Amino acid sequence: MKIAIIGGGPGGYYAAIRASQLNAEVTLIEKEHIGGTCLNKGCIPTKVLLHAAGEFENLNKNLKDYGIKITGAELDWDKLQKRKTIIVRKLIAGVDNLLKNNKVTKIMGEGSFVNRNQIMVKSDDGTETTVDFDYAVIATGSKPVIIPIPGVELPGVITSDEALSLKQIPSSMVIIGGGVIGSEFAAVYGALGCKVTIIEMLPNIVANMDRDIVAPLKEKFKKKGIEVYTNTKVVSISESAEGLIVNTVSDGTEKTFNAEKVLLSIGRKPVTDNLALKNVGVETNRGAVAVNKNMQTNVPNIYAIGDAIAGVMLAHAASSEGIVAVESIMNKIPEIDFKTIPYCVYTKPELAGVGLTEEQAREKGYDVKTGIFPMNLNGKAMIEAEQEGLVKYVIDGATGEVLGLHMSGPSATELIAEGALAVRLEATIDEIMSTIHAHPTVAESLHEAAHAVYNNAIHIPK
């Protein structure tokens, strides 16, 4: 069985390795960098910057509460950029080694379909290679959306790609879009001394997550001097002697914001334009490849995964979809449950959620009950001086089944795995309550929140 995969990101390389494990002959085609956006321009480099920004913030603000006095702490931006590059290169080398160990043939170049059994790969030097396949998997990822407003072409207007590698920290930045990417960059540059303003058209930042766990992040932004304007639409960007001007309107009121840099962070769109999909008849919807639950397109031997299908644009979702695709191709029934996809934001406080939000559960007609435990009552959070946040369960009042877990606070992106497992196993809140959690840990807050569903939390005063 010959399987060709176009795209070497977290969806593509997972699919390649799993297909090899199932004894397929695998060719992986990558246009630019193994690891895709996530490893090179997304998940990994942003977390390097976020971690450094958090440590720097601790040195300047938090450690004095521990009795540790530090003066003269400075950030070496160039050295941080080098560290980011080193980590990315190490991880790329690791993925490369995994592909070699699994006997995956790697071809660097841009792939496009010739017909339903051939892909033409064109390398940077103009060399063309034909790849024959029995099955193909499209894993070409996504790119930042550029909003069609006057001024987006001006110097100083950047996307997340450029924001990762600025030569120096700007004095001020307006971020258009308060989703995950915008909020994370706000956290990075806000902690490093940049004056940050977030402009969001929706009523809330990080609007896809439960509003109760987003509230502590908004409050933390406010304390740090990061301004957030919601229900606000950007109409244009213009130049001034001092830099850039972002012109907005909210409820009929016009307002302008000055900035050295303007970051466009309103989402991403599938990269499918150059695949020559017309040659094979693959159906798309606004550039996104249409697939069924097995990731199969309308052409039986062509599959698609990850951001190319414009579903849940997360690296771990793409990886799981890659496994589903190749297991389906190899006639192995996939057992991945997509209800358990965690959503994470790596700010301080961290945000994480899995399953249904309270609002979603009510819309679906559940008899919703919730249990909330504030992080400022958790001993470990107090020790770590990270008391902003809370834990919130959403359960079906009729059966006690856990429908969702949402949390903000220290280690939220790690602890959300407990919620994902609970949703996967259709666990009840009683089963969470009867599971012993270690003390002292932040994880205790999950236990307390479970008890809070029945107003029995030990550490919440009556």
Helix content: 25-40%
CATH topology of the largest domain: FAD/NAD(P)-binding domain
Mean model confidence by pLDDT = 95
The CATH first-level class of the largest domain comes to Alpha Beta
Supply the number of structural domains.
3
Distance between the termini: 64 Å
| Biggest sheet descriptor | 5 strands, parallel
Quick overview:
This protein is of the alpha/beta class and 462 residues long. The chain has helices at 12-21, 36-41, 43-62, 77-101, 160-163, 180-191, 211-223, 315-329, 358-363, 379-383, 412-424, 429-433, 444-452, and strands at 2-6, 25-30, 105-108, 110-115, 118-122, 128-132, 135-138, 142-144, 157-158, 172-176, 195-199, 227-229, 233-239, 244-250, 253-259, 261-264, 268-270, 284-285, 288-289, 302-304, 343-345, 350-355, 368-374, 390-396, 402-409.
Keywords:
FAD/NAD(P)-binding domain, Enolase-like, domain 1, 3 domains, 5-stranded parallel beta sheet
